[in-house]
Every structure is written in structure tokens, then in C-alpha cells.
Records
---
Amino acid sequence: MLRLLILNLSSILPVIYAHKVHVGNKPQVRVTTALVNFHARIMDQWGDGGGKTWTIANDSYHPFAHRQFGGGKRREIRGTNMFGSGYPYGAWNTTSIARRSFPFGVWPLYWEDDFMDSSEVGAQLDTIRPGGHISIVPLRTTKENFTISQDEVYYAVGDSQSLISILISYVTWCHASLAWPTRFDPTSPNATVKLENVLQYYRASSFALASPAYSNPNSRNASY
Ligand SMILES: *[C@@H]1O[C@H](CO)[C@@H](O)[C@H](O)[C@H]1NC(C)=O
Ligand SMILES: *[C@@H]1O[C@H](CO)[C@@H](O)[C@H](O)[C@H]1NC(C)=O
Ligand SMILES: *[C@@H]1O[C@H](CO)[C@@H](O)[C@H](O)[C@H]1NC(C)=O
Ligand SMILES: *[C@@H]1O[C@H](CO)[C@@H](O)[C@H](O)[C@H]1NC(C)=O
């Protein structure tokens, strides 16, 4: 049943529809790669990804100077229900996300108790997080006999810009009801969704779909 659920969820993920639409104003995220000049790369949310891998400048102000980023392809975007998944490269330490590359430019999420050393990209850096601070949005469907029944609520968690563009896709193509993303603190003891509620990570664990009704018993066995 869970398997079916995940298949249904990924079938409504806007990334899959991306190539079918023609919209002039494509959602993009600016990924700053140096804090001493205007060096940046543009992440096109509807692009196929790929392209060159870059190295963040030798800039002592940048928290992740010298790290590799970019090059991840759209078809590599999907992870599993384990934090740390969804990396096409750079997941050299399966029990920690610290010192990993950023294959999609964006940073991974972070969780309470410094899970898998995720405080490396924690709240202290939210203001310079590519795509904006971590946010959450509920996803409900307004149509009957859609793959998700009306009383089920899922949550998308990610940077605010990604969430807004994905939300627009959901509303436009999937008949989801509109709700704005709100700021989300994944480390809060009463967070709407927690580590174990994640059904699926995407984009080097920078984006997640979660349901409070789901609990992954292995979620805290750090290994990915
Ligand atoms: C980085 O910059 C510092 C200071 O400008 C310099 O001392 C160091 O050699 C540089 N490192 C690399 C790997 O280029
Ligand atoms: C992998 O991460 C764990 C947890 O932070 C750390 O103890 C271990 O030393 C790391 N492995 C390597 C090879 O750095
Ligand atoms: C969807 O539901 C409506 C009413 O509940 C029904 O009339 C219609 O046949 C259903 N459509 C499909 C494709 O199941
Ligand atoms: C979370 O808990 C804190 C402290 O117990 C409380 O102040 C806050 O209102 C709670 N937030 C929500 C959304 O319930």
C-alpha cells in the first residue's frame, strides 16, 4: 500500500510534467557561489539538470568554499525515504551529510539532534540557503477520485522558492487547494512533520514529501 502511495505521489510531482508545459516565466533559483562577488549559478526547476560540475570559490566567507556542486540530472532527483538519499554523487559518507557536495546546487534539509551532522546546513544558515529558508506547505486535493483522497494531507518541505513554484504546479495541474508555504523549523519538538514522517526525499535530500500518518521505523538508522 505504501509503495502504491509513493508511486501516486511521484506521479503528481511537477518535475515530471515539466517538459510538457510552455511557460515564459520559468521558476529558477539563484545559487550564490561566492559571498565576495556576484558569482552565482541559476538552477532551473524545470530543466533536465546535468551540465558542468562547479566548485564553490575559495572564499573564506562562504560556508562551503571548495565544495563541488551542480551536475545532477533530473532523472537522478529521486531518493528514498531515508535522509541522505537522492545524491547522484558526493554521498561518500553514508552516515553523515557533512562535507558532501551539492549535486543540485541546493542544500540538504536538516533535522533535530544534528541528525547525520545536518546542523552543518542548519538554521544558522537559513538566510543564505539557496532558494530561501526552509518552509512547509500542506498538499490537499480538491477533486474526488483523484489518486489521493480528500481527507489525506501531505506536506512538502524544502526551500521557499522551490515550494512556491512546486505549489503553483500542484494547483495548476493537480487540482490541489492553494495554501501558502509557511516557515518551518525541522528541529522543533512539535514540528508538523518529523524525520520519520518522510515518504520520499528528492534532489539530494533538499526536498521531501511527508505525511504525519506515515512512520518509517528505520528513519533514525543513519545510513545513506
Ligand atoms: C585560498 O585563498 C587563500 C587566501 O586568499 C590562500 O591562502 C589559499 O592558498 C587559497 N587556497 C586555494 C586552494 O586556492
Ligand atoms: C562519517 O561520518 C561519521 C559521523 O559524523 C564520522 O564519525 C566518520 O568519521 C565519518 N567517516 C569518514 C570517513 O570521515
Ligand atoms: C469521479 O467521481 C464522480 C463522482 O464521485 C463520478 O461520477 C465519476 O465517474 C468519477 N470519475 C472517474 C474517472 O472515476
Ligand atoms: C510548539 O511548542 C512550543 C513550546 O511548547 C509552543 O510555544 C508553540 O506554540 C508550539 N507550536 C505549535 C505550532 O504548536
---
Amino acid sequence: MCFLIVLLSTIFAPVVADPLYTACSTEYASGIFPDIVSGQALCRGDVNSSACQTCLREASQKLLEECKSKDAAIWYEACQIRYSFQNLTSLNVYAGKYPVLESQKKSVSDTVHFYDYLKLLMDNLSIDAALNRSKLMFATGEIKFSRNETIYGHAQCTRDIREDECQECLSFALLDLKGCCSSKQGGIVVSGSCNLRFESVQILQRLKSLDSIPNS
Ligand SMILES: *[C@@H]1O[C@H](CO)[C@@H](O)[C@H](O)[C@H]1NC(C)=O
Ligand SMILES: *[C@@H]1O[C@H](CO)[C@@H](O)[C@H](O)[C@H]1NC(C)=O
Ligand SMILES: *[C@@H]1O[C@H](CO)[C@@H](O)[C@H](O)[C@H]1NC(C)=O
Ligand SMILES: *[C@@H]1O[C@H](CO)[C@@H](O)[C@H](O)[C@H]1NC(C)=O
Ligand SMILES: *[C@@H]1O[C@H](CO)[C@@H](O)[C@H](O)[C@H]1NC(C)=O
């Protein structure tokens, strides 16, 4: 059922799927605009450059349509983009957002021990994303949870922040992930500088195989 919904929205979506989350600050940019606007874009680490560009084009259009504020950000499956009329320092403050995934509406079979496994995986991925330079701040991995359940996850930081900032951002995100999703089949926390996601199905592969279905 979930698969079907994703599939249909992929076929009928004009370019990319709907945004996961849009955040427009409540401070409106009215009257005089300052001279400087900072912007930042990030694609998920496994997304190729043409799909990345398509996603970012869609994202920036949508963001300008939806937000008329001083700071704004939008997150998609494949990319995220944000701008601010304030300086970049204020952009990098951790502010987790929690898009609700289909998989988050279902619980895992063993809710008592699930978070131990999730934390093990996510701590590992956070260290990998922050410290392994060959990963370019994007790490994926999996851990077997029960006979028939495997947790797949990824962790990513924007490449303008330091290693310790990346680790810190991801540790805040993991706390938030614990809050929303610690016994669910999936969950995602996004922030301006990092994001963290897990699913009990292999999402990267699923998204890839969906992408390769012709739009006819
Ligand atoms: C940027 O913002 C930070 C925190 O909001 C502030 O402390 C800093 O002075 C600002 N820097 C500039 C150059 O405006
Ligand atoms: C944690 O990371 C190490 C090294 O990257 C890897 O060998 C190990 O399998 C990982 N463990 C989990 C639970 O992901
Ligand atoms: C960093 O990632 C590469 C590529 O996946 C891997 O071969 C290497 O073992 C990792 N290094 C550490 C220190 O985990
Ligand atoms: C895994 O098995 C348990 C019981 O053996 C069942 O309750 C649960 O729904 C299964 N989970 C999945 C994802 O198939
Ligand atoms: C890039 O990814 C998209 C979506 O996954 C795919 O349709 C396209 O063929 C890929 N392009 C290249 C050059 O690999």
C-alpha cells in the first residue's frame, strides 16, 4: 500500500516528489531588503548530479512560492535548500524538524530493545559522517534487529561545518529521533546542517529502483 502510494506520486509528480517539510520563519521580509542573502543547498550523498540539480531547481521555486520570510528552508527526499537574510552563523543553529513518514505510523515488533539497536547504528553513522573524510559527510549503514527486521539508516552534514559541529548536530538529531520515532519502523529528523534517517526497508535502493521506472 505504502509502496503503491510512493509509486503513483513518483509517476504523477511533475518533476520530483512533494517536499518533506517546509519551514518559513515568522519574521517577514518586508520593505527594505538587506544587501546580503546567504543560501545553501545540499543533495543526499547518493543522488547523482542531474537528479540533484532537478531537485534543487524544484526546491528553490517551491521555497520562493511558499515563504516570504527572512529565513526559510525546505527539505525533499533528495535535497534540501535554505536561505537567510541574516548571517550564516544564525543559519547553523540546530533546529530539528520532524517530517512524518508513512513508516513512522507503524511500530516495530519489539519496542523495548529497538532503540538500543537504532542508537548503535546511528552513533556509528554519525561518527562515520563526521570523521571519515572519504565519505564527504554522508554515511549509510544497516543493523540486523530481529530475525526478520533490519534497520537501514543514513546520516549527513552540510560540508561547510566542522567535524565536531557535524557530530554535535547529529547527536541533537538523534535525541529528537528518539523522541519521535524510537519504536517506529521509520523516522527522519532534518535540520539546516544535518539530517538523520532510518527505515526498516532499504530506502536508498527503493528510491533508486522507483527512479528507474519510466514515466510513461
Ligand atoms: C552573525 O550572527 C551571529 C549570531 O546571530 C552574531 O553573533 C554575529 O555578530 C553576526 N555576524 C555578523 C558579521 O553580522
Ligand atoms: C560500526 O562501524 C564499524 C566501522 O565502520 C563497522 O565495522 C561496524 O560494522 C559498524 N557497526 C554497526 C552496528 O553499524
Ligand atoms: C572510511 O570510509 C572508507 C570508504 O567506505 C572505508 O574504506 C574506510 O575504512 C573508512 N575509514 C574509517 C576510519 O572508518
Ligand atoms: C517480524 O516478525 C514478528 C513476529 O515474528 C511480527 O510480529 C512482525 O510483524 C514481523 N515484522 C515484519 C517487518 O515483517
Ligand atoms: C541520475 O539519477 C536519476 C534518478 O535516480 C536517473 O534517472 C538518471 O538516469 C541518473 N543519471 C545518471 C547520469 O546516472
